[in-house]
């Protein structure tokens, strides 16, 4: 019987506490049922949704109204501003999302390039500043740019969401070097979002000190989304526990190289000098 | 433009309703369940409690938005 | 949340602090040598083979605080003086002629003799020919610091003396310096005023060095997060014999100082590490290659130390009042030093030695003119 381990530390964003460090998206699922099962299996508490013009053609789009499939009492809905091409459109979408009467949380994402879906830093900073002034809890999706991350924290975002790799590429922590700097300098939670293609990527993200990860594509397009969601849940918990326990620092490469004359010889002046 | 009707744009398409019609009437006319949509009138988002009873004005640009699946 | 609040709640268990605690744990000579090799390589990568030079310029040794370890302590009947603006400029011109382009204005804490307007005036005078002026004086509020930043100062140094509040209290029995938390949050207030360089450190010897080091490292980590646009430097003032004959309760051995410098370098590769002339020549030369990136040279630690300026105004200060010297003392008395110099080599000898060690002495690092 394994001894009961202390539960890992909770995730706190804008003063609100979450047990799970896995945020999930709701796009690209084969069906609403598959999505609901995957959310259940993931243990997530924060779920992103998008805003789109209602279809007036009368055909019934199953995903048309996400609120029928996701209980806002059980999950914190995090509307995103995907579709916005600039700060003004993002602010407009955020206000629309807030009109639903849900908590004013917003995943600020502005990607004018529909092919790679890479975030526009300038419009994102402008929108963040405006939305914070309007009382929104802003979680900005950004490229892994440490200075932008600090500029966003300076204007009052509740977190920063740097990408591991472009959305949908599933290529894992390609921006590791910059992510490490962002985490080191962060005074708000760091949620690594986009590009995490396998549970091992998520575990590595938590091991390096990220506060949480957001996964959508890798779960939604799996042959069995609920099973993959469960795998990501285990990986995120494993990564966080490993981080809290403290990974032994890898032995520095070539640490054994001993210089010709000892560097600390000056601590032991030769007897002749005494 | 007769005074016994009002024409507004719904997601960009003109819709004509009897005078005094409200945004709620417009939504119903389009078969949209109020609980499931968000409304923006002339670029300004309206709280869920605000829009159902609000009367339409001639030429109003109404946007009906849904929360949908997204990453 | 300021660092004093963070410290009060207990040190955060971050990965870098856990690693740092390992680096300062007791170790044998072989392990110290390996740590030194890693520190040297890390320093090369980030700073190349350079050594920045600066000179302290003491403008006053008046002080309203009683600190048991300091020569300037109010209850020491030492010879005190405060330089006039002209005298400060004369001292600075002397240093500039020697090549210094970075000057640290140092003073005891005295609201009347060393006000922030006086310091701003000193800064304005020096900025005409000194590109980098920084201050090591009493802690202030942000608005007061702003005057000095607007006058052209770019750096501020505040030593917490000891990060252990229990040890701190009895060492500071009287004066504004009794407020541990207000002093500890001073770097963040200075950052808010616009200082580009921040210097911190502990006066080594007041508390067990390993616990002191971990709290110092936590302060570094906190400032790197919250004052991210400033460049941070840590100094290693080690207690020397002072006029008040204070003997440190936890004296730091040379070997421990070396481990501390190397551990900070490995844990925080990009921060500046400063070593003053408190330390003897052989130690400074040895540490120059292992992590230190900034040094003073040919320093004097009393007002007027370089040109004799201010001697005409020497007096004692008793209970806040200025007491003239006895007749016999006039003419021979000199302003009392803050501490004895460990490395009395003139700056030219230090520069030659640095070149021998394969290091390039840097007089001028940066000039605000490019931002003006």
Structural summary, described in words:
- The complex is a heterotrimer of chains A (274), B (71) and C (372).
- Chain A is built from 8 helices and 10 strands.
- Chain A has a single domain, classed as TIM Barrel, CATH 3.20.20.70.
- The mean pLDDT of chain A is 91.
- The radius of gyration of chain A is 22 Å and the shape is globular.
- Chain A has helices spanning 32-42, 87-98, 121-133, 146-155, 176-185, 199-207, 217-220, 225-245, and strands at residues 11-13, 16-18, 22-24, 46-53, 76-79, 105-108, 137-142, 161-162, 191-193, 212-215.
- In chain A, helix 2 runs parallel beside helix 3, helix 4 (146-155) packs parallel to helix 5 (176-185) and helix 6 packs parallel to helix 8.
- By secondary structure, chain A is α/β, with parallel strands linked by helices.
- Chain B has one domain (5-66): Beta-grasp domain (Ubiquitin-like (UB roll)), CATH 3.10.20.30.
- Chain B has a 5-stranded mixed sheet with strand order 2-1-5-3-4, with helices on one face.
- The longest helix of chain B is centred in the middle third of the chain and has 7 residues, at 23-29.
- The mean pLDDT of chain B is 91.
- Chain C has 372 residues and is α/β, with parallel strands linked by helices.
- Chain C has helices at 3-8, 15-23, 29-47, 85-98, 116-127, 142-150, 165-171, 180-184, 186-193, 209-226, 254-267, 281-288, 347-356, and strands at residues 50-60, 102-107, 132-136, 155-161, 197-202, 231-235, 272-275, 294-296, 315-318, 321-324, 360-362.
- In chain C, the strands form 2 sheets. Chain C has an 8-stranded parallel β-barrel, surrounded by 5 helices. A two-stranded antiparallel sheet of chain C has the order 9-10.
- Chain C is 37% helix and 16% strand.
- In chain C, helix 3 (29-47) crosses helix 11 and helix 6 packs across helix 9.
- Chain C is built from 13 helices and 11 strands.
- The radius of gyration of chain C is 20 Å and the shape is globular.
- Classes of the chains: A alpha/beta (274), B mainly beta (71), C alpha/beta (372).
- Chain A binds chain B through residues 25-29, 35, 48-54, 56, 58, 63-68, 77, 79-80, 82, 92, 95-101, 167, 194, 216-217, and chain B through 10-11, 13, 30-33, 35-40, 43-49, 63-71.
- Strand 4 (46-53) of chain A pairs antiparallel with strand 5 (61-69) of chain B.
């Amino acid at each position: 019987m394994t001894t009961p381990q202390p539960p890992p530390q909770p995730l706190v964003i804008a003063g609100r506490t979450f047990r799970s460090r896995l945020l999930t998206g709701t796009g690209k699922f084969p069906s609403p049922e598959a999505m609901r099962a995957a959310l259940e299996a993931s243990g997530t508490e924060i779920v992103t949704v998008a805003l789109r013009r209602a279809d007036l053609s009368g055909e019934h789009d199953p995903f048309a109204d996400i609120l029928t499939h996701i209980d806002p009492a059980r999950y914190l809905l995090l509307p995103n501003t995907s579709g916005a091409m600039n700060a003004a459109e993002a602010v407009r979408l955020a206000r629309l999302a807030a009109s639903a009467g849900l908590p004013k949380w917003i995943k600020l994402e502005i990607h004018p390039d529909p092919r790679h879906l890479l975030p526009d830093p300038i419009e994102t900073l402008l929108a963040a500043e405006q939305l914070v002034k309007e009382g929104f809890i802003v979680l900005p999706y950004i490229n892994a740019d440490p200075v932008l991350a600090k500029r966003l924290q300076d204007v009052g975002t509740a977190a920063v969401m740097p990408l591991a790799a472009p959305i949908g590429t599933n290529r894992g922590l390609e921006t590791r070097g910059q992510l490490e700097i962002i985490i080191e300098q962060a005074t708000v939670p760091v949620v690594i979002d986009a590009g995490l293609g396998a549970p091992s990527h998520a575990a590595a993200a938590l091991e390096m000190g990220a506060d949480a990860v957001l996964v959508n594509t890798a779960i939604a397009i799996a042959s069995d989304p609920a099973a993959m969601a469960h795998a990501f849940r285990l990986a995120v918990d494993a990564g966080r526990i490993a981080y809290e326990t403290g990974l032994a620092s890898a032995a520095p490469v070539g640490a054994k190289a001993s210089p010709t004359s000892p560097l600390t010889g000056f601590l032991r002046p030769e007897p002749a000098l005494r | 433009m007769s005074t016994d009707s009002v024409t507004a744009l719904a997601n960009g398409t003109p819709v004509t309703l009897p005078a005094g019609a409200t945004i709620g009437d417009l939504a119903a006319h389009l078969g949209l369940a109020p609980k499931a949509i968000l409304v923006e009138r002339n670029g300004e988002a309206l709280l869920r409690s605000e829009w159902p009873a609000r009367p339409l004005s001639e030429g109003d640009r109404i946007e009906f938005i849904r929360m949908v699946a997204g990453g | 949340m300021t660092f004093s609040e963070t410290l009060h709640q207990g040190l955060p268990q971050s990965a870098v602090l856990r690693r740092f605690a390992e680096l300062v744990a007791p170790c044998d000579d072989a392990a110290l040598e390996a740590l030194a090799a890693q520190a040297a390589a890390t320093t090369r990568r980030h700073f190349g083979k350079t050594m920045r030079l600066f000179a302290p310029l003491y403008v006053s040794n008046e002080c309203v605080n009683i600190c048991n370890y300091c020569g300037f302590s109010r209850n020491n009947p030492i010879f005190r003086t405060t330089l006039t603006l002209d005298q400060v400029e004369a001292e600075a011109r002397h240093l500039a002629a020697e090549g210094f382009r970075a000057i640290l204005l140092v003073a005891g804490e005295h609201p009347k003799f060393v006000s922030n307007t006086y310091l701003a005036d000193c800064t304005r005078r020096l900025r005409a020919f000194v590109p980098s002026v920084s201050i090591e004086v009493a802690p202030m509020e942000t608005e007061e610091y702003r005057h000095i930043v607007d006058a052209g100062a770019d750096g501020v140094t505040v030593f917490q003396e000891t990060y252990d509040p229990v040890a701190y209290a009895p060492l500071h029995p009287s004066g504004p310096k009794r407020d541990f938390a207000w002093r500890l949050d001073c770097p963040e207030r200075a950052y808010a005023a616009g200082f580009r360089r921040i210097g911190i450190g502990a006066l080594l010897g007041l508390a067990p060095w390993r616990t002191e080091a971990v709290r110092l490292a936590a302060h570094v980590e906190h400032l790197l997060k919250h004052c991210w646009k400033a460049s941070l430097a840590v100094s290693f003032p080690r207690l020397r014999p002072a006029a008040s004959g204070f003997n440190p309760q936890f004296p730091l051995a040379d070997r421990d100082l070396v481990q501390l410098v190397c551990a900070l370098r490995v844990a925080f590769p990009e921060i500046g590490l400063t070593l003053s002339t408190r330390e003897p020549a052989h130690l400074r030369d040895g540490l120059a290659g292992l992590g230190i990136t900034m040094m003073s040279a040919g320093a004097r630690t009393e007002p007027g130390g370089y040109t004799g300026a201010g001697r005409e105004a020497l007096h004692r200060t008793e209970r806040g009042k200025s007491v003239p010297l006895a007749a016999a003392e006039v003419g021979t008395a000199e302003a009392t030093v803050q501490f004895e110099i460990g490395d009395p080599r003139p700056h030219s000898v230090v520069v030659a030695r640095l070149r021998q060690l394969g290091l390039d002495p840097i007089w001028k690092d940066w000039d605000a003119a490019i931002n003006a």
